[in-house]
Amino acid sequence: MGKTNRVVVIGLDGVPPKVVFEKWRGDLPALSMLASSGLHGRLRSTDPPITIPAWTSMFTGKDPGELGCYGFRNRRDRSYGPLALADSTSVRAPWLWTILSRRRLRSVVIGVPQTYPPMPLKGALVSGFMAPHEGARFTYPPQLKEEIGRICPDYEIDVPNFRYLGKEHLARKVTEMTRNRFRLVRHFMERWEWDLLIAVEIGPDRMHHGFWRFLDPEHPAYERVPEYETLVKEYYKMLDRSISEILEILDDRTSILIVSDHGARPMKGLLRLNEWLKRKGYLRLKEDLASPVALHPSMVDWSHTLAWAEGGYYGRIYLNVRGREPHGIVPPSRYGELRGQLAQELVEMVGPDGSPLGNRVLIPEEIYRATAGIPPDIMLYAGDLSYRVSASVGGEEIFSLTNDTGPDDANHDIWGMYILYEPWRSQGFSPTAKEASILDIAPTILEALGVDVDFQMGGRLLE
Fold it and tell me: What's the CATH number where 223 sits?
């Protein structure tokens, strides 16, 4: 990246490259200028492409397997019990700001997911959207919470129950949240000393989940409602103005990265994966259920169950292996054969109309550099991320148009975006488009700050 004094990273959760570089480029002058004067392009997210683990991978340089973090919730042990929430205490790899703190460099970190509870660093940290707000210590140092209250009395970490809000109300709440976030960012920029400043805004992701079917003609439920598209477009224009205000504060020796953790794509429906496993003979219940309910371990006849699944934006399947799970029945000698058989059946799955669903199956040890924690035995992108996956069982339907966590228009896409802007290179610079990996961000930031990149990170420098 060349010589720099400081680095600013603005994270925009869920922003797809087409929105910034194509669809609304002419309406986003600040982002357009940055892209036209710097390196930019599609940013390949993690597998899976979801907020956690994607942001954690971005700011540690480790893939989800190395982190042992395969989603918002993960198996805590080999029992059939509830999954554990992925908070900051489960991150064993050093964050960028931890590395910098050891070298007496100062960081300001705002809104990064999986940073609650906050950990000490040289600088300041305001936890991301998974932190409870009321009554919680979501900052480091703790007294920073009072400073935030003075600067932004209405500061919100996230918009509660965003899936259930009316469209106009959702847009208003997300806009207010984002404006306050950038107000806080500007305060830190001007009043605190820092070498690295990272701020992640969750707002774009909330807008996409609420409005994507009004933006994307390829959505099966696409509806042309100009006022709804305008709400999202105005939100993006406000984001662009907020970034422009930040640029006015920075000097010409500060490197700027604009990044997203994943993209967005239409959600066509819901695959009830445990119900599919039940009908295929992999999962047996103690009794049949007349209507869909969330799978609970007490419902399962483990003595006759080969596999079960967890849901979300992607599916995770676990085999019930003898000697590994408490009531495992799959002989270890048959593990590879059974996993291959199940993977093939998943690939051959047909959708509601009888045509191939287009599933994508991933095997953790084949895609990660290591597999810490308890990885799934099989990872499933239903319809190649066109379908959300539910862990529910019961009833007659395997597919549904109704999401299990509330109204939702979008699933996550593997392609996010990035812009790397270095002011001292902008004159006469020919804009360069280049695909990059989310793992490239951490080593690039360290290199820019003069820190040796010797932490076995998985990415390469953006140049």
Answer: 3.40.720.10
Which H, E and C letters describe 121-180, residue by residue? CCEEEECCCCCCCCCCCCEECCCHHHHHHHHCCCCCCCCCCHHHCCHHHHHHHHHHHHHH
Average pLDDT on 231-244 reads: 98
pLDDT tens for each residue of 342-360: 999 999 999 999 999 999 9
Secondary structure of 429-442 as H, E, C letters = CCCEECCEEHHHHH
pLDDT score of 406 more than 80: no
Asked whether residue 189 falls in the same domain as residue 328, the answer is no
- What does the pLDDT look like over 61-105, one tens digit per residue? 999 999 999 999 999 999 998 999 999 999 999 999 999 999 999
The answer to whether 200 touches 13, Cβ cutoff 8 Å, is yes
Which domain, by its residues, includes 331? Answer: 269-407
Q: Are residues 347 and 437 in the same domain?
A: no
CB atoms within 10 A of CB 448: 24
Question: For residue 203, which amino acid is it?
Answer: G
Phi, psi of 389 (to 5 degrees): -110, 130
Domain count, the chain: 2
Are both 281 and 343 inside the same structural domain?
Answer: yes
Report how far residue 238's alpha carbon sits from residue 254's, in angstroms, rounded to the nearest whole number. 23
Same-domain status, 75 and 216? yes
Give me the helices (H) in 7-131, please.
Answer: 17-18, 29-36, 51-58, 64-67, 96-102
pTM: 0.96
> Does residue 213 have a pLDDT over 90?
yes
Backbone angles phi, psi at 96, to 5 degrees: -55, -45
Sign of the CA dihedral running 105, 109, 115, 121: positive
Q: Structure tokens of 91?
A: 């991150």
- 35-44, 65-74, 261-270, 430-439: least confidently modelled range: 430-439
C-alpha count within 13 angstroms, C-beta hemisphere, residue 271: 32
Terminal CA-to-CA distance of the chain, rounded, Å? 6
Please indicate, yes or no, whether residues 237 and 311 belong to a single structural domain of this protein.
no
**Residue 70 sits in the same domain as residue 185:** yes
Task: For residue 455, tell me if it sits in a domain.
Answer: no
Cβ 356 vs Cβ 247: under 8 Å = no
233 and 318: one domain?
no
The helix-helix angle for 167-191 and 203-215 (nearest 10°) equals 150
| Same-domain pairing of 322 and 382 | yes
